[in-house]
Amino acid sequence: MREDLTVVKKGKGQLGLFTKKSIPRGATVLKLEGKVTPVPTRESIEVGTGEHITDEKEGVYINHSCDPSCEICREEREVRALRDIPMGGEITFDYNENETKMAFPFQCECGAGEKCQGWIAGLKGRK
Q1: Chain segment 62-121, per-residue pLDDT in tens
Q2: Count of domains for the chain
């Protein structure tokens, strides 16, 4: 685990990835590293057509948000800040924007109000 990131237990026992320092908009939060598979899994992040990486150090703790703090830069296999993230801010990305098809679609409870998309299933699974 990078020293500037930490895993924290959120409500309902869910774990999330949070920053220990402020991160400016456009900065690389982390490089995704790990096993690459041709199909999505519950813990993988899509980084290309038929390429899903399971980053067991940090990536598995990045939760979905319909108002995300970050985006996945596929070619670079990086998580990049979409806005300034304050110290203690959660690292999130929009699964519907990044994933072609989710291995395990779910009803969203991200708390983004009117921005909330409701059903999270990836680009091809949107209702």
Answers
A1: 999 999 999 999 999 999 999 999 999 999 999 999 999 999 999 998 888 999 999 999
A2: 1
Task: Give residue 58's domain range.
Answer: 5-125
What is this structure's pTM?
A: 0.94
Neighbour-count burial for 14-45, b at 16+ CB within 10 Å, e otherwise? eebbbbeeebeeeeebbebebeeeeebeebbb
Rounded-to-integer distance, Cα 82 and Cα 54, Å: 22
- How far apart are alpha carbons 113 and 100 in whole angstroms? 24
Amino acid in position 61:
Y
Over the chain, what is the mean pLDDT? Answer: 94
How remote is the C-alpha of 20 from its chain's centroid?
Answer: 17
